[in-house]
Input
Amino acid sequence: MVSKWKTRVEVASGEKDWIQTRGCFVRAFQNYPLYTHLIPNEDKRFEFLTQYLEAIYDVLIRNGDSVLVCVKLNMQSQNGYFIPTERVIGGVMFVPPSVDGGWECQHDKAFWDAYAKYRLEEIDREAFNRILKYEEWEYKTISQHVCESGVPMWNGVLCGIDPAYSGKGCGSLNYESCLKILSRSIKQSTKNSKKPITKKVFADAYRKLVRKLSRKSSPKNLRLRNAPVFALSHSRRAVHFHKKNGFHAVAEIPFPPSVEHREDYPFYVTALVLSMESEKDYVGIVDRVTPSSCFIW
Output
């Protein structure tokens, strides 16, 4: 009889880890506001999401330099022995920073080719067209401004925990391990930068970015240095969780912009930034981490 769960976080190793992580993402995203709007046909959502995520992985991981971090689970029996079966129950996909600012953006053609390869338009034309419309809006409204900031940033593009493991003591993302992995990568990205990213340089760029996205003042207590993590969330519950764990909300933007009444928007897109001055700051944030049954950007 299983009495205890034990999770750990590590960089994914090969296709086996990805297939399991993809399944977790698909199940976690079934009722996520972004995807229920973009893929309204419930009968096609599972297949479309599976192939859409496969296309993203193909561009960013198989043919790119992005990083997939997995949350893995072992089960412990009452006699104290761990069952040898190990499974992936979630993960996070990070796009690395660009030395020119923002993150490493792939050419549109790479994604178009991947979408064709995985038959997205054939599976669900309406969902395919909605995806393209949203991606164009997201780039013009948010991503373009981030990439023009001049400050390298990691982009957390996908994150999720399998709903089957929520509420069982193993559904929260292991923040400490994840941030340690990312902190090592941040040090390397800063080392490869063409120019030093000083606190003043990032602070000025951040405030400029805030003004462009939301026309409001930036948080006074934001710690700034190195390559920060940038993420978008489409769930207010998830936003609340991220803010409790060190993220700062840059802006909340309604989608689509054509709706006249705010209450009619299907969802809001919240831009979030996580930035620490040193690896010690990661430990400070870990101390404030609270369990989450579903962790999605």
Observations:
- The domain at 2-286 is CATH 3.40.630.30 (Aminopeptidase).
- Residues 215-225, 277-297 have pLDDT under 50 and may be disordered.
- The radius of gyration is 19 Å.
- The first helix runs from residue 14 to 28.
